[in-house]
């Protein structure tokens, strides 16, 4: 017998006009007042970017700064020029973070024999339609292919484009390829600037101490609004742990998704209310099981009580 029964409820959608009206004034103020420093990862003068409230707008401001097309940008990292996907700019940016821009390099196609159920990949995305290899498991199928690297953009699986898909969709497609099959990955690697720009495949290194502290952040929200938030230790630990659970379950890494899950449980008193909040949101598309919901709720309550360690 399940520990609780998850209710099926109709999604409540905000009125787009009302949401837009509510956030416009605050959005404009946030965008106009904040200025961030940026550089191209392979080397460039330092630029200044401002007036953006989502990743796509940020890319356009950077492209305008350096006079190239925003389509040339693969992703941005925070506080390191290296291809360290743990520092990928996604749904938020610290107010004193330094932005490093990684542009498209050479494409490559690799034929892969799926000799094991698991390929050994953790996948993340940039919130702007591109998915990337975040981590490669040691001694896995992918680890034995020297041409595949952390930071590579997964452009196609066989002849099917992955551009515009979320990372969990790409992860599921790779997982669903039958064992024993042969398939082709088309990847695009970022421009590299010698060995100094290469991050170890499974690196979990911390933030460069010479840059931002990340305590106060500009958060890009799904409804198009941007707001400044202060991160607490308990929320940061909880979100990090939820992201770790997502990686273990789905083979994806997504700070934005983990933050969304945390916020659904932030003010809930029990697991039933939390489950209902998840089912009444876009998160229900991921099909979380009751057991996983209980596990997520355990992380939230442990974080609140200060029982989670770094």
UniProtKB/TrEMBL annotation:
Ranges of residues in domain PDZ: 109-189
Q: Do you know which Pfam families this protein is assigned to?
A: GIPC1_GH1 (PF25083), GIPC1_GH2 (PF25082), PDZ (PF00595)
Q: SMART domains given for it?
A: PDZ
Q: Which residues form the signal peptide?
A: none
Family listed: Belongs to the GIPC family.
Listed PANTHER family? GH21964P, RGS-GAIP INTERACTING PROTEIN GIPC
The protein in question is named: ACYPI000686 protein
Q: What is the lineage of its organism?
A: Eukaryota, Metazoa, Ecdysozoa, Arthropoda, Hexapoda
């Amino acid at each position: 017998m399940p520990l609780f029964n998850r209710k099926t409820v109709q999604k409540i959608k905000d009125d787009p006009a009302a949401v837009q009206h509510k956030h416009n004034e605050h959005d404009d103020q946030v965008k106009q007042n904040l200025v961030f420093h940026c550089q191209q990862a392979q080397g460039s003068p330092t630029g200044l970017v401002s007036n953006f409230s989502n990743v796509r707008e940020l890319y356009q401001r950077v492209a305008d700064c350096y006079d190239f097309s925003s389509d040339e940008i693969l992703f941005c990292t925070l506080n390191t020029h290296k291809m360290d996907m743990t520092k990928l700019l996604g749904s938020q940016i610290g107010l004193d973070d330094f932005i490093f821009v990684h542009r498209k390099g050479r494409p490559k196609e690799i034929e892969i024999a799926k000799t094991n159920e698991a390929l050994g990949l953790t996948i993340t995305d940039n919130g702007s339609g591109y998915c990337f290899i975040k981590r490669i498991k040691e001694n896995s199928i992918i680890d034995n292919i020297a041409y595949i690297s952390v930071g590579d953009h997964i452009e196609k699986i066989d002849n099917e484009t992955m551009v515009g898909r979320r990372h969990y969709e790409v992860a599921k497609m790779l997982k669903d390829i039958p064992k024993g099959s042969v398939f082709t990955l088309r990847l695009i690697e970022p421009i590299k600037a010698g060995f100094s720009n290469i991050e170890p495949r499974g690196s979990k290194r911390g933030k460069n101490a010479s840059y931002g502290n990340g305590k106060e952040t500009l958060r890009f929200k799904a409804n198009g609004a941007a707001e400044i938030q202060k991160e607490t230790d308990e929320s940061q630990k909880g979100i990090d742990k939820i992201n770790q659970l997502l990686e273990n379950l789905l083979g994806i890494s997504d700070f934005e998704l983990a933050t969304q899950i945390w916020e659904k449980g932030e003010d809930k008193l029990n697991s039933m209310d939390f489950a209902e909040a998840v089912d009444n949101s876009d998160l229900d598309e991921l099909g979380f099981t009751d057991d996983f919901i209980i596990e997520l709720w355990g992380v939230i309550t442990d974080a609140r009580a200060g029982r989670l360690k770094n």
